[in-house]
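How a chain folds remains the central question behind the approach discussed here. No coordinates are needed to read the tokens, only the vocabulary itself. For completeness, the protein is quoted in full, as a sequence line and a line of structure tokens:
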Amino acid sequence: MGLVTWSVGVLFLSTLLLCSADVHHYEFFVRESNFKKMCNTSTLLVVNNSYPGPEIRVHRGDTVFVNVHNRGKYGFTIHWHGVKQPRNPWFDGPEFITQCPIRPRTNFTYKIILSEEIGTLWWHAHSDWTRGSVHGAIVILPAENETYPFPTPDGEQTIILESWYNGNFKKIIDKALAAGTPPPQPDAYAINGHLGDTYGCPTDTIFRMEVDYEKTYLLRIINAAMNEQQFFTIMNHTLTVVAVDASYVRRFKSDYILISPGQTMDVLVSANQNAGQYYMATRPFSDSDVPPVDFITTGIFQYTNFVGGSNASLITLPAMNNTDAMLNFISRIRNTNVTQNPPINVPADTDINRRVFITLAVNDLPCKNSKCVVSDGFAASLNNVSFVYPHIDVLQAYYRNIRGVFAENFPFLPPEFYDFTGNLTGVVSAVEVGTRAICVNYGDAVEIVLQSTQMGAGGSHPIHLHGYSFYWVGAGFGNFNGETDPSTYNLVDPPLMNTIDVPGTGWVAIRFFANNPGVWYMHCHFERHTSWGMSTVLIVRNGSTIETSIRPRPSTMPRCHRT
């Protein structure tokens, strides 16, 4: 019954969108460029010579073609983060999951099919660590026959939070993986490519957003940082959160936001203070025993025609380890029953026919590379399986029934149960490597519980599922209890997300109907954890009709080296 309700609601919404859907074309030229920051010059792979890259600006329900020209030295892919791509996994983008890399001196055109997404998403490279410099915003405006579920803002500004390294992102992770050591911490954080005024280099630039008094602005905030959740604030101004992960939420006010890597938030801010210059600022949040560097990066919220210094000399942000501030913010995120959202259709307890319980851990495995400087290198796992990328993409192997590429036997339960968030003294949890997929049928009602462990340094994990928005129905601290914890679920107004943060000493529960056939990547959006294997693949088998089956494989897909 739940799937039927969802289908009727989406059909109605889709009919409205198709009346005004448009087609857009973009050209991305990806090449190396030099950037000077922190009084150093770094060579980065970027799109159209810009960091961050160009913004894709469309209306809800549109279709976008992006022709990507690889003028660099190595292959890569691009992912359209948060775009569901209905029945269209071929253009989702993760390397060796849905395609092989775009080789140097070649090009590949992506077809991006927008459906019910609204607000802000983003695109980024999905190969090694290249997304650190290859990324940009996707702005999805209301369709021509739609309005905002709040007063139309007077202006808007995209704000991308980033990690800055004085070096090439691919070389940084390649060196760390070869040595079996963790990658280095970032040298700074950035706002729209600017490092602000806190790092001591006189030639560094600061991002400025110019505003008019008594006007209201929509901020489109994206966390593109590599491994850091971020607090963000504008001094002396109140932020009103209106959307998360391209879905409207019940509006709430806050002095700050907390946003995880991969997530997007739409936030209203009114320029209603005394005319002046006010700091905007960002700093990391962490609940790990090995936290990131605690830098504060600044920007300026500047009233038009004001000349003078900053009105707020003291930057107030929650401390990096302020778990209460984290909880206070995320606990207020709720779905909203507005016509601009698809009807809320949470799988009920009686609907659920696929339950998966997944533990998240940082582990170690013998380092066998000739460049190893340690005997045991870092690994990461889901249910004690550390993911290995195959030599051809999983989607092609699945579609063509090529054997030996992946296995359809990802464990639906951890291989062993222990005090996941407690004292692990004496606990030895063996890890295996492999390319193992979660397989479900079209129309299944799925519940996934994600459980953090204290393996490694513990800490949060932002988990992203491609091809879907899911309902975040539950969260808690300690070990998940399947008998009692489901009674605490929010099945009334849970938010729709595509990236959910699993607290370092707790768990989250998500639910969704498997209504998008294909091969979809699920992984931690801390890049170091993905590099170590904290990922898997969700395969949703075809339904019984053409409309419930994967679209045919395009003839233009990049060739894999071994095919």
About this structure: Helices lie at 2-18, 169-179, 323-330, 394-400, 527-532. Residues 397 and 405 are 7 Å apart (CA to CA).
